[in-house]
Write a structure and sequence with these properties.
With 242 residues, the protein is α/β, with parallel strands linked by helices. Helix content is 32%, strand content 18%. It has one domain: Rossmann fold, CATH 3.40.50.1360. Bound molecules: fructose -6-phosphate. The site of fructose -6-phosphate (F6R) has 14 residues, from loops.
Length: 242
């Protein structure tokens, strides 16, 4: 794993955006795996700025997001779908039909069926060239939460207390936060040709420390990425040093 330690969030965002921009320039038909959350907001704003300066073309790029709450209406401002529209999809020349995210607007019982179709669609697109990941305070990636075993393909999950506590405050009424999500599985993520993880702030220190100094364990799902041949971690000093 290549590790790049930055001064702060701004530098992390600059470096992360530069890596994605390089991928898109080198392969205009790149398939990108994308994440939501606070970590990539600065990175997305830099990609939008590069597009506005005429330096990037997303017209042939395809994107597949990692995860979505379940159940949630895509029009709900807290949905990951709304997040992507706000921060990237509507601000660059991505074609709407090329922007994909698991559908959270279904009942939990019906989620399994769409999950296999999501993995099949990624495979049919040629697989993910570059997968962007944030990391949870508990080491989750996507919504693959610490557990005795981890799922391979896209699947529905019950969110942990740690994740509910971290994301609940983003909802006007935290009790409205869905208790489940649909997420790409570890296999779906691992199949990406390249992986970029970004992390900032002291709250991520334990997860980063576990990732860099611990072994591979399902108690820290991100640690599985230590086995992947092409992973870059870009984090700030606070996440790295605590
Ligand atoms: C979001 C996702 C999550 C986040 C993680 C970190 O699509 O998959 O795993 O990347 O929870 O979230 P932030 O960036 O908000 O700290």
């Amino acid at each position: 794993m290549k590790v790049i330690v930055c001064e702060n969030y701004e530098e992390m965002s600059d470096k992360g955006a530069a890596l994605i921009a390089a991928e898109v320039r080198q392969n205009p038909e790149a398939v990108l795996g994308l994440a939501t959350g606070s970590s990539p907001i600065g990175m997305y704003s830099r990609l939008v700025a590069a597009y506005e300066r005429g330096e990037l073309d997303f017209s042939k790029v395809k994107t597949y997001n990692l995860d979505e709450y379940l159940p949630i209406d895509p029009a709900n401002k807290n949905s990951y779908c709304a997040f992507m529209h706000e921060h990237l999809w509507d601000k660059v020349n991505l074609k709407p039909e090329n922007c994909h995210i698991p559908n959270g607007n279904i009942a939990l019982e019906d989620a399994e069926a769409q999950c296999a179709a999501y993995d099949d669609a990624i495979k049919a697109a040629g697989g993910i060239d570059l997968q962007l990941l944030g990391i949870g305070r508990n080491g989750h990636i996507g919504f693959n939460e610490p557990a005795e075993s981890l799922s391979v393909g896209t699947h529905p999950v019950k969110l942990t207390e740690s994740t509910l506590a971290a994301n609940g405050p983003l909802f006007d009424d935290p009790s409205e936060m869905p208790r489940h999500a649909v997420t790409m599985g570890m296999g779906s993520i691992f199949s990406a040709k390249k992986i970029l993880i970004i992390a900032n702030g002291k709250a991520k220190h334990d997860a980063i420390k576990g990732l860099l100094n611990g072994g591979i364990t399902t108690a820290l799902p991100a640690s599985i990425l230590l086995l992947h041949p092409d992973v870059t971690l870009i984090c700030d000093k606070e996440a790295y040093n605590g």
